[in-house]
Amino acid sequence: MQLILSDLGEIDTVAQKIIDYADNESIWLFEGEMGTGKTTLIKAICKQMGIVDETSSPTFALVNVYENEKAEEFYHFDFYRINDEVEAIDIGADEYFYSGRPCFIEWSEKIPSLTPQKNLKISINLDAERNRMISLSKHE
Fold first, then answer.
1. What is the pLDDT of residues 36-84, one digit of tens each?
2. Could you read off the pLDDT of 86-128 as tens digits, one per residue?
3. In the chain, where do the E strands start and end?
4. CA gap 120, 28 in Å, rounded
5. d(CA 76, CA 62)
6. How many alpha carbons lie under 13 Å from residue 100 in its C-beta half-sphere?
7. What burial class does residue 7 get, using C-beta atoms within 10 Å of its C-beta: 0-12 exposed, 13-18 middle, 19+ buried?
8. Residues 104, 79: contact at Cβ < 8 Å?
9. Which one, of 79, 85, 77, lies nearest residue 26 by Cα?
10. What is the Cα–Cα distance from 12 to 3, expressed in whole angstroms?
């Protein structure tokens, strides 16, 4: 599935389309260069999912835990600053990944052997006009 986000005023609509496409997928991999809007999109998705906690990039903490109004947990990872997969293992990433709870993972390419095979990949690229081209694909 392909989506185009040409104006940030449309981000909530795009976020809802991604949620609908994802169905009940728990592992969401966000890929894209620095500055393409991965964290911004995750914030919009969290808003649409009823997250009541403040959402922000877990760049230094590696993982943030959020709750929705039903006290269900959601996990947001940012592996940009890790040097190797051992750092992800040390925070118990695999336990989060196999918890069945939604996991939003930025920079998953830094932990290739830890990422579950069953996932939703969300790739974001900017075109020449700075539109965000969002590709969605499910992997079994």
1. 999 999 999 999 999 988 888 887 789 999 999 999 999 999 999 999 9
2. 999 999 999 999 999 999 999 999 999 999 999 999 999 989 8
3. 2-5, 27-31, 63-67, 73-78, 103-106, 119-126, 132-139
4. 5
5. 8
6. 1
7. exposed
8. no
9. 77
10. 13
